[in-house]
Each structure stands twice: as C-alpha cells, then as structure tokens.
Amino acid sequence: MNPGRLFLAELRREAILLVRYPLETVSRLVWNLGFALLIFFGFSAAVGSQASGLPGFEEGNVGRLLGLLTTYIAINGLGNAAELIAEEVQTGTLEQAALSPPPLVLVVLLRDLASYVEMLLRFALVLAIACLVTGVRLHLDLPAYVVLLTLMYLGMEGIGLMLGGAGLIAKRITTLAQFAVMLVFGLAIVPLDGLPAWARPFVTAFPFTNALEQLRAVAVGGTSLGVLWQDGRLPILLWGALAWLALGLMVFGWAERKARDLGTLNQY
Amino acid sequence: MNDGQSPAVPGSSSGLLVEGVSKTFPARAGRARHDAVQDVSFHVRPGEILGLLGPNGAGKTTTLKMIAGLVRPTSGRIFIEGLDVGTQRMRAVRGLGAVLEGNRNLHWKLTAGENLDYFGALKGVGAIAARRDELINLLGLGPHVRKRVGELSRGLQQRVAIAVALMGTPRTLLLDEPTLGLDVEAAVVFREVVRDIARAGCGIVLTTHQMEVAESLSDRIAIMAGGRLKALDGLKTLRDAHRSPGHALAFRGQPSPMHREALAHAGLAGLDEQDGLWHGVVEAVDALPPLLAMLRAAELELVSVTERAIDLEALYLRIVTRDVA
C-alpha cells in the first residue's frame, strides 16, 4: 500500500468530477463568491461586529472576507468525513474501501485531504475575485495562508472523523453533524467576554478561532509565520490541530472496529 | 491488529479456509440478540467454485462478510492463502476480491476505466494500466471502457464490478447473488466469465437463490439454514446421499383395473398416466424382476427403467425444510 499513490488517485478522482460536471463546478464557485459578496455587502452587522471570538469579523473588509471563507473551509473540514461516510454508504462504495488493504480511516483521511486541496484552490479563486470586486487588498503571503488553513483543516478534520466514526455505527447522523457545525460556529462568534473564564482558553485555542486570528494578523498586519511561531500562537495551533486529529483518528478507529463487530459497516 | 507480523498457519496456506466460524449480533435497540452464523467450516481450493445456498436469513451473506473482514466473527478463524483475516487483515485481503453488492460497489460518475484505475490504487496494484487492460480484455469491456458506469446496462455494470474485484489479482473471489437482475444473455456471458476466472486458478464462493446458476457453476454445493451448514459436498455425492431409493418405470399400453391392482400389489407405486405413458415408482430393487415379468405378461410395452434422481431444487428444499421441521 502506498498512501502517496492513493492520495494522487483521490486527487485525480476529484479533478475528473470537476471537469466532467462543469455546471456543478461553476455553480459551486459562483455560489461561494455570491455568498461572500452578499455577506460582505449586506450582512456584516448581522454576522457580528461585536464578536470577539471571531477576530476577523471585527477588522472590517479584510476580516469579513477572510472570516467568511475560513469559516466555509472549517465547516467543510468538520462535515467532510461524515458526509463521505454517508455518501459512500448510500452508493455502496464504502464496502469496497472497507475490504481493501489500507485501513478505512486512511482512505477517508486521504479523500478528505484531496477534497481540501480542491477547496483551497477554490478558496484562493473566490478570494481573488472578491478582492477585485470589493477593492479589498490583502497582504499576500501564500505560504502562511496555506500553513494556517491546513493546520486549521487538520484540526477540524479530527472532529469530522469523530462524526464519521459515529456515522459508521449509527448511520443517520445528519442532525448531530449540523449540531456540531452550529456549536463550532457559535463558539467562534460568541463574544469572549460573554463566556465563563474557564472556557475562554479553549475557545481561543480552538483550531478554527486560533487560525482565523492568525490569518487576520497575516492578511492585515503582514505578520510572518516566523513571528507567529516565536510569539507562541503558531505552536498552539500546530499542537492543537494535531491533538484533535489524533483524537479523531483514534475515535474513528474504535468506531470502525465496533462497526465490524456490530455488522453495521456496510449497512444502508 | 498485527498485520504483517504473525506467521501463516501451516497446512492452510492454499485457498480459503473457514474454521468453526460463528457470529452472534448483540441485542440492539429494537432488535434481539441474533445467532446469525454458528460453527461453519469449509475449505475452497484454488480454481474451485463453491455454491453457497440457503434461504434468506440463513447466514450466507454474513459468512461472506466475515471472510471479507467486514464483520468480525464472534469465534472461529478465517484464512486466505494461510493469512488470518482476524489478525492479518491487511495482508489477507490482498488475496481477496469481492462483489457483495453488485453494481452498487462502483463510482457511477466515473467511467469503467476510471473505476479500475481508482480501485487499482486503492488495492495497491503495481502496474495498474497493464492489469486494467488485461481485465478489460478478459471481461469484454473494451467498447464500454470510456462510458460512465451509470450509463451501462446492469450486466455490464456487474462485469465492471467483477473487474474491480479482480484488480488486485485475488486468489479468492466472493460473489454475492452475482446474477440477480441480469437478463438471460447477460447471465450466460457472466457464467462463462466466472468459469474462466476459476480456470485461471481463483477459488470462488458464490451465493445465489437461482438453482440453475449454482448447478451449472459449482464444483461443490454448501447449503446453509438457520445459520448452520447443513450440507457440503459435490452435487453428485449430495444427490446420491439424498435421492429417494428405487427406480422409475414407464410403459405404454392400457392396463386393466385388475392389472393395475396386481402391479400395485407387486410394489409399483404412484401409477399415473401422462401423455400416453404410464409412470410408476418401485422402491425395492428385488421387486423389479417380477414387475417386469408382469408387464410382459400383460402385453404392456416397457419404455424405460431409470434410477430415481433428485434435482438440486428438490435436494435443497429437502435439506432446508428438514431443518425447519
């Protein structure tokens, strides 16, 4: 088994579907862009100029755009594994994945990462068009954006894997997934001052809020990755993301074993 | 799991070996504890086709899923080419291909060729393009390789599913209801394909409710009922073991009531006329000579004397209903 080859196969599969269904591809792009502009021009107040847990939203145009698109990626990271399990169970392809040599969790993780690569490219395109349309200027530090977004995604993927694991056993987890998305999003937009003191460090260190705060620092203030590392924010994001991912892998692995015991792995 | 560490079990290194496997599903919300499979054992040699028959709920599919590693047995062990599926799953399933849900196992938005490429990578195939082309030729998929799976007929989808299962060059192939929903022509083609795969040295376990499929393909037949293996042998041996004793007689002519009474008295049972021929059954072999003499004396023309046979359907029903009774 070669994870690199499997990752490339997943990327190729993503690319084939993007090219084969152009209307779907363009619609998704237009929807993302339209939503970004709608939020930008119309709903900034509703999103929360007072939100302190989501620092990007406080910082005007740049923050709003970054906040919106980062939230989009975070929510996808959260929901991808669960959606993948649900979709593959419906189509029956989960069974082929589960009886193939690689561990199922690796197949799910690599497919999610392939989906993330596509999303990252779409994110870059939407952000570029949005900047052109709105006149917003970002400090362009692509490596920093990629590192911060990827770490955030890995952390959210950890939670997504836990949901995906629940899906292997319980099958119907749509409401649970929606609840998790709302919980994460709620934690992010709720004013920090409104939270109990014990909860504030958790919310601040949460991969989504933490990464967003650092993205804003890069985009608005031109802060480099080196500075973020030295002042301790980047290591917190790194270890936090890895911890969530490790927890997600463990929970998914446990759920897979349990599903093989219960016989629910390929039930529809 | 300890994949790659445990040594192969001596004596079980060839084909598929299922050893005393049982599966009990624990009680869950709304469902009682269920003994799906109980103490099932069999061996499938390379190149052999085992037809696994049984009514719905007999435990056939659960058995296949345990072989594939999708369901973990409560007890017992399963070896593929000597590798324990329970403790060496990753290595063991490299020697396994399975079509458990027919055409549902495929990515319908991808073409047949793209499916083979994708699953080739998933199964860790080295030279994917060469193996893909080989299977496309073997299964006659050449004209359809660039079509999306969703556009193909069910028979072609089934062939693509088999090609996917064969991508990893398995030594054991599991087919669950492989001809379900196929038209007659597709089913005939499919049977030829399965025979070719077996001739190439692949051991095959297939479940089916279609007796003619099992009869035409299987080297041996296994019949499950109530989670247990009720019979396992070659079809001829099973027929010999379960056929009714005696011979069937057919004769032409018009026996008088007196003759019929005499024949019945001599051991000819179930005398009945069909299409101008009279048919009857005699169970005791030593009753045959006097019966034949009586027919001659009554000027009734003997047409045939045949050993009573039992077809697979009757055999299956006898074994399964005996279990229910």
Give your account of this protein's structure.
The complex is a heterodimer of chains A (268) and B (325). Chain A is built from twelve helices and no strands. By secondary structure, chain A is mostly helical. In chain A, helix 1 crosses helix 6 (104-134) and helix 10 packs antiparallel against helix 12 (233-262). Residues 43-58 of chain A have low confidence and may be disordered. Chain B has a six-stranded mixed β-sheet with strand order 6-7-8-3-9-10, sandwiched between helices. Chain B has a four-stranded antiparallel β-sheet with strand order 2-1-4-5. Chain B has a four-stranded antiparallel β-sheet with strand order 12-13-11-14. Chain B starts with 15 loop residues before the first strand and ends with a helix. Chain B is built from eleven helices and 14 strands.
